[in-house]
Design brief:
Layout: H1 2-12, H2 23-29, E1 38-39, E2 46-47, H3 50-61, E3 66-67, E4 74-75, H4 78-85, E5 97-98, E6 105-106, H5 109-119
Antiparallel strand pairs: 1-2, 3-4, 5-6
């Protein structure tokens, strides 16, 4: 019973990344070819996909290479910037709300309100 608890607790602490103990399973299921397992030099977390490792490293370095051209938003993943751009009406969505102070467009009024509070320090819009 103690061994079962330890293995369950150990799995919970990996943050959903079970790469540490599954090398044999992956090797067998991929026709005997062993995939390269790369580790983060900051924390030792293992990744089989180098792109995932690159994004993970940014959590340590603070690098945020993807920047919004309409506001000061920056992020570590291109998919997060794509999602963010939808708040400005990118990809066909109509930006109905415009900030009167800096002319940044928004598709949702609540997002404009958050912008006014965060960027322009206005309590009531």
């Amino acid at each position: 019973m103690d061994n079962e608890r330890r293995s369950v607790a150990g799995a919970a602490n990996t943050g959903g990344n079970n790469n540490n103990n599954n090398n044999n399973i992956t090797s067998a299921s991929s026709g005997g070819k062993k995939k390269k397992d790369e580790a983060c030099e900051f924390c030792g977390k293992h990744f089989r996909n180098s792109s995932n490792l690159t994004v993970h490293r940014r959590s340590h370095t603070g690098e945020r290479p993807y920047r919004c051209g309409l506001c000061n938003y920056a992020c570590a993943q291109s998919s997060k910037l794509t999602r963010h751009m939808k708040t400005h009406g990118a990809q066909g969505a109509k930006a109905s709300f415009l900030c009167q102070l800096c002319a940044v467009p928004f598709t949702v009024y609540a997002t404009l309100e958050k912008h006014l509070k965060k960027v322009h320090d206005l309590k009531n819009s």
